[in-house]
Amino acid sequence: MSVEAPTSRDELVADLDDEQREAVLAARGPVCVLAGAGTGKTRTITRRIAHLVATGHVAPQQVLAVTFTQRAAGEMRARLRALDAASGDVGTSSVQAMTFHAAARRQLSYFWPRVVGDTGWQLLDTKFSVVAQAANRAGVSTSTDDVRDLASEIEWAKASLISPEGYAAAVAQAGRDIPFDAAKIAAVYAGYESLKARRDGMALLDFDDLLLHTAAAIENDDAVAQEFRDRYR
Questions:
Q1: One domain, residues 66 and 139
Q2: How far apart are the C-alpha atoms of 128 and 130, rounded to whole Å?
Q3: What sections of 55-143 are H helices per DSSP?
Q4: Residues 32 and 85 in one domain
Q5: What confidence tens digit (pLDDT) does each residue in 160-171 have?
Q6: Total domain count for the chain?
Q7: Is the N end or the C end of the chain the one with fewer CB atoms within 10 Å?
Q8: Residue 117 CA, distance from chain mean position
Q9: Measured between alpha carbons, how far is 185 from 179 in angstroms, rounded to an integer?
Q10: Are residues 76 and 21 located together in one domain of the fold?
Q11: Domain of 34, in residue numbers
Q12: Helix (H, G, I), strand (E, B) or coil at 13
């Protein structure tokens, strides 16, 4: 993959349009960039990171760049390495760039003993078999398509912070088209959570749990929140 690499700080913005340049050079603090595919978001973000590091606003180790996909994370790391090599080792190659699930997993691994205690946890790579088991117990079809639909509903509910008990009401309020009766889906959802609560002394977490538990640790534990703020700027 060919990656453009400016050779000086001035060249960080030389080939950017006015809006990209404004985003890169904005004062330290939150910046929201809304743009479609192929408009240069990754280039703008990596240049902003390089600008903040080069000007001493942040140390490379204090930057966490998150993406949706592993491919995007790899591209971002490649661009940061190229910027570092071309600028005389500013330090951008030390910036962490990963998917938001990977970032949550790393933080949760670090904070889990402090927040939860001695109970260990294991990542559930795929929820299919556990959802199928919960569906079978609830008397719901366990065909491949139906289990996938049930898994999607569980993912939607968890992403929306909806519990099994609140699922039926939330679906009715949202006017959501669902594959089964809401009470049946809620039963599968509850059974799924019960099945992974404890297995062989380990808590099973799915990818949604990584985000939920990490967010809960930051929101509910002041010491965790402060350490996270100190680590990333």
A1: no
A2: 6
A3: 70-86, 100-115, 128-137
A4: yes
A5: 999 999 999 999
A6: 2
A7: N
A8: 24
A9: 9
A10: yes
A11: 10-100
A12: coil
